[in-house]
Amino acid sequence: MQIYNTSSTAVQPETLRRVKVLLPLPLAGTYDYRVPAGMNLARGDFVTVPLGTREATGVVWGEAEHDKISEKRLKDVFERLDAPTLSECSCRFVDWVAAYTLAPPGAVMRMAMSVPSALLLPKPRIAYRKPINAIDVRMTFARQRVLALVEDGPPMTAVELSREAGVGTSVVRNLAKVGGLEVVLLSADQPWGLPDPERAGPVLSTDQQRAAELLCSNVRQGEYSASLLDGVTGAGKTEVYFEAIAENLRVGRQTLVLLPEIALSNEWLERFSSRFGVAPALWHSELTQAQRRRTWRAIAEGQIRVVVGARSALFLPYTDLGLIVVDEEHDSAFKQDDGVVYHARDMAVARAHLGKISIILASATPSLESIINVRKGRYGHIILPSRHGAAELPEVHIIDLRKEVLASQYWLSPTLRKELVRTLEAGEQALLFLNRRGYAPLTLCRACGHRIECPHCTAWLVEHRLVGRLQCHHCGYTTAMLNSCPSCGAEGTMAACGPGVERLAEEVVALFPEARLATITSDTIHGPTAAEELIRQIRVHEIDIVIGTQIIAKGHNFPMLTLVGVIDADLGLSGGDLRAAERTFQLLHQVAGRAGRAALPGKAYLQTYHPTHPVMSALTSGDRDRFLEEEATLREDGEWPPFGRLAALVLSSRDERLVDHVATLFSRSAPRGDGIRVLGPAPAPFALLRGRHRRRLLIKTSRNVNIQALIRNWRSSVKLPGTVRLQVDIDPYSFL
After folding, report:
1. 81 and 137 co-located in one domain
2. Residue 287: which domain range?
3. How far is residue 94's CA from residue 106's CA, in Å, rounded to a whole number?
4. Are residues 249 and 144 located together in one domain of the fold?
5. Is a pLDDT exceeding 80 seen at residue 201?
6. Residues 439, 494: Cα–Cα separation, whole Å
7. 174 shares its domain with 221
8. Phi, psi values for residue 561, rounded to 5°
9. pLDDT tens for residues 116-155?
10. 17 domain residue, yes or no
11. Which CATH number does the domain housing residue 568 bear?
12. How many domains does the chain have?
């Protein structure tokens, strides 16, 4: 990742007679407007402006050039909204992200302006209190009960008074009309609780204390610093960076914590509340619109001190951000593949650099990018080498499926079955990991071999037997289960192939009918409340066997969970992805780390057909650093990231012949030169996605090449038809 300088000078209000306004639309740039007499505007102000025949809301982006557009063509700004000004650092961050990802600045601004209703002052609440100068009114028993409540208490709404007094709201309002109550206007939003940095936390080990002191020192310096907090699973990394958060609260600045799976973060939130006395502000897709409006506005006004959220929380309007924490920094969930394509970890580092603040990247399995940044001196390296307290790392064992043959249509090996029996007899818990949702990943006809594919994507339909549907996990298309083959018409020949978590659960129920079972996937977790209840049941041992996908692979501490079984350890190793081995190692290391996190020792068993693969060897030996060294050597020899630059360009259209023609023309204009290589065009692995035919090109360069400038010039050299889209992915993580 390269840092671009997009700094600009804040505009003085008295000099602004023409302004550039950035609108939250995927447009080429800003629009110029005239400032009416008497209106003072500065960079970052939210304004409403005319756009064609409608009214639009945007942000003042600076002073417009006076000789660029004639006075007659300019339209006036309508008004400045009564909303906090977007900080200079936030404005620069929008420019930086747009320049790095090659996205229109307005598309990035749309992420920063994700809650338009927050730009308007909320309507105040009408409340009632005892009048300062009381007057005589006709009294009833109902009125007496109402007046008794407001005698010495704070103002209350009509609903609150009616509920407490046991009367109708009309009694309250009529009493106010005759002067028995005084009407007051209260803020529509309740104040946010402030985390207490002086509240006692858990006792830290010597290693934890040393790490915390280093991170706190970085916060106090008030300058840019990046630290990789590298600790084994269960080492207590969270408690360590909590101390850095406490230090940031002491100096009076805001903190952002990014988590990859915010919906399953209840345990983290409990630990935060225990340490600081209040819950942090949350930001994720499950919030209601009212919650999003309140949170966005409070962040912009500086009321909220700590925000915990998914990747989109990076674009909230912080007024004085002083610390960013990216937990599980290696996690691929931080990559956004739709709209503005970006990696939240990398953008968080850029945000910290622009704001001259500290950033902490925490992981038990750091990304190779972060390890290389440590080696090059860009990041500090803070290591927690052992688990906290009496817990020890689990033993990792390989089950060689070439020797231990599975019975037909069964997925648990004899060894894993025996370990499950032992675990249940000991009164302990087990986790079976299979990173496949549904019942089976493929349905085919035994008569003719026809495979059931999505009509809109190059993908098989996944059987979800519990709901009786076939579903595409890429576009959402669903259809009923099939009784006959759509190709040959044969009936009763449709067969489920391969296991998903539902099918594995079916096998476990047959083997262990008395065991209490839970299946955890993104299909079965419907919101944070459901996730919280399920995690609680596991923690208090109301569940014996957990079957889950990667959603359960990290961040959870279950004291009675001592066995982890990975059903298909080879699943992520295929597909030609340059990060396949690294990601598989990270995922399996994380899921194995769920075992033995308390006093009871843990074991992990990996079922594989490739027991000598470097990933399997690294997991059983525990030699992570050697594995990363070998990965680094392979990448460096081929000048692949992080030793080279890579970008994916995907052209798509509903017309297959048109996209083939455009892709050929586009490739002829590809940049040439030393250190530049263009691969393609070729059909993307998902050549059809959501009804659009896709052709992909990859551009690979050496580190010293400005790949954004190359692509910008390349893109401008070819005029694309309106029905053909071009998506650019700088630093691609997925090659589908």
Report:
1. no
2. 206-384
3. 9
4. no
5. yes
6. 14
7. no
8. -85, 115
9. 999 988 777 888 888 887 777 888 888 888 888 888 778 8
10. yes
11. 3.40.50.300
12. 5
Residues 237 and 371 in one domain: yes
Through-space distance between the first and last CA atoms of the chain, rounded to whole angstroms: 22
In this prediction the pTM is: 0.86
Same-domain pairing of 517 and 399: yes
- 3-state SS track over 368-431: HHHHHHHHCCCCEEEEECCCCCCCCCCEEEEEECCCCCCCCCCCCCHHHHHHHHHHHHCCCEEE
- What sections of 426-479 are H helices per DSSP? none
> Which of 67, 88, 113 lies at the terminal end of a domain, its last residue?
113
> How many C-beta neighbours within 10 Å does residue 238 have?
19
712-718-722-727 Cα dihedral, nearest 10 degrees: -40
Length of the chain: 736
Residue keyed to tokens 């982890």: 564
CB-based contacts of 408, cutoff 8 Å, min separation 6: none
**C-alpha–C-alpha distance, residues 239 and 245, integer Å:** 10
Of 253, 277, 261, 300, the residue nearest 115 (C-alpha): 300
Q: State whether residue 653 is helix, strand or coil.
A: strand
CA 422-423-429 angle, 5° bins: 170
Kindly give the pairing relationship between strand 358-363 and strand 676-689. Answer: unpaired
What average pLDDT does this structure show over 449-459? Answer: 84
pLDDT of residue 736: 59
Q: Is residue 329 domain-shared with residue 244, that is, in the same domain?
A: yes
Q: What radius of gyration, in Å, describes the C-alpha atoms of the chain?
A: 29
Residue 146 three-state SS: helix
- Cβ atoms < 10 Å from Cβ of 254: 23
Helix (H) or strand (E) holding 584: helix 580-592
* Rounded-to-integer distance, Cα 111 and Cα 24, Å: 8
Whether 279 and 287 have beta carbons less than 8 Å apart is answered as: no
- What is the number of alpha carbons within 13 Å of residue 57 lying toward its C-beta? 17
Q: Are 122 and 189 in contact (CB under 8 A)?
A: yes
Helix (H) or strand (E) holding 586: helix 580-592
- Please say which residue of 588, 606, 632 terminates a domain: 632
